[in-house]
């Protein structure tokens, strides 16, 4: 196994991990604080990517595309929470799953109606179109920028959650929501704040992913599944768990897909390895999740109570 190739794939895994973190950070707070299952979170990622692509196509400005993605997803998320999701807070999880699944279909059809069925493409900004030298590896500058942005957002979220009053309320809600209500804190305000932050992060992820993924209807569902694996692996309600869980899932998924088929060819016949390798590689993160649930039902980095 080539060390340079391994390092490059590890960077790809880190890049996938930070994208997953941007998507899962808000989702884990919604689940942890409000015990609300929001399957439509991936649709905010998709709409953020569409907003970015539309703004970039109209202005050729990657910065304005980011403003459109983050701002558009934030407004859409708050509107969705106030108009639809707030009515489901006191309902059973089945109603929440069915309601948010319906929103997924609505957003997909809206995307098809406005932008069509054909994929929409964004180009990498010229400033980040080159490469950077990272030790023995020449790595695309844009993918490296995604890693840097994700890590900076992680640090910013840590400071907000642990060093501000709003963060204190969010942590209190994740640890003991009943006590938060007893203290007279407006749950509706906390819910709107959490949804706004989560939607903005989903829009940021959509903006960053636009130039490297195909922007098309339904693009939010596959990454939502990965985000749910991140939540279960890291620990529901924990920003720290979302961060480390995302990195673990991203690296395991990328390394597995890159090297497992080749490793299988060393021990079984080539035709079997070619057929079984990709399938087994795609199952690795779910096997990881099963192992975590077996030995750490609350996740690897659960919310600390008490």
Give your account of this protein's structure.
Helix 2 packs parallel to helix 4. It is built from 11 helices and 2 strands. The chain has one domain: ABC transporter involved in vitamin B12 uptake, BtuC (Orthogonal Bundle), CATH 1.10.3470. With 306 residues, the chain is mostly helical. The model has no long low-confidence stretch (mean pLDDT 86). Strand 1 and strand 2 form a beta hairpin. It has a two-stranded antiparallel ribbon with strand order 1-2.
How are the elements arranged and paired?
Layout: H1 3-34, H2 41-59, H3 62-83, H4 93-115, E1 131-134, E2 137-140, H5 141-163, H6 165-175, H7 177-182, H8 187-209, H9 220-234, H10 239-265, H11 270-295
Antiparallel strand pairs: 1-2
Main beta sheet strand tally, sense and closure = 2 strands, antiparallel
Report the β-strand fraction as a percent range. under 5%
- CATH level-1 class: Mainly Alpha
Helix content range of the residues, please? over 70%
How many E-type strands? 2
Indicate the CATH architecture. Answer: Orthogonal Bundle
List the secondary-structure elements in sequence, H or E: HHHHEEHHHHHHH
Mean pLDDT: 86
Classify the oligomer: single chain
Protein traits:
306 residues, mainly alpha, ABC transporter involved in vitamin B12 uptake, BtuC, two-stranded antiparallel ribbon, 11 helices, 74% helix
């Amino acid at each position: 196994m080539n060390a340079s190739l391994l390092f490059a794939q590890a960077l790809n895994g880190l890049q996938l991990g930070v994208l997953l973190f941007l998507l899962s950070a808000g989702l884990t707070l919604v689940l942890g604080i409000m015990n609300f299952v929001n399957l439509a979170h991936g649709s905010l990622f998709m709409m953020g990517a569409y907003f970015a692509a539309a703004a970039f196509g109209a202005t050729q400005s990657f910065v304005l595309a980011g403003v459109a993605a983050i701002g558009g997803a934030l407004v859409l998320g708050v509107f969705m929470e106030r108009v639809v999701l707030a009515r489901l807070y006191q309902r059973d999880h089945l109603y929440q799953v069915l309601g948010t699944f319906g929103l997924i279909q609505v957003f997909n059809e809206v995307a098809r109606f406005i932008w069509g069925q054909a994929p929409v493409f964004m180009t990498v900004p010229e400033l980040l179109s080159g490469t950077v030298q990272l030790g023995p590896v020449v790595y695309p500058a844009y993918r490296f920028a995604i890693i840097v942005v994700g890590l900076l957002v992680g640090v910013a979220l840590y400071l907000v959650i642990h060093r501000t009053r709003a963060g204190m309320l969010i942590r209190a809600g994740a640890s003991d929501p009943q006590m938060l209500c007893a203290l007279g804190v407006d749950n509706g305000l906390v819910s709107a704040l959490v949804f706004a932050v989560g939607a903005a992060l989903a829009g940021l992820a959509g903006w960053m992913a636009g130039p490297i993924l195909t922007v098309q209807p339904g693009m939010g569902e596959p990454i939502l599944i990965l985000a749910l694996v991140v939540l279960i692996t890291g620990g529901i309600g924990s920003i720290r768990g979302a961060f480390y869980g995302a990195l673990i899932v991203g690296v395991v998924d990328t390394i597995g897909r890159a090297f497992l088929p080749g490793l299988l060819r060393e021990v079984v016949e080539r035709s079997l390895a070619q057929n079984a390798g990709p399938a087994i590689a795609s199952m690795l993160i779910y096997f990881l999740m099963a192992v975590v649930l077996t030995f750490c039902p609350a996740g690897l980095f659960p919310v600390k109570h008490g």
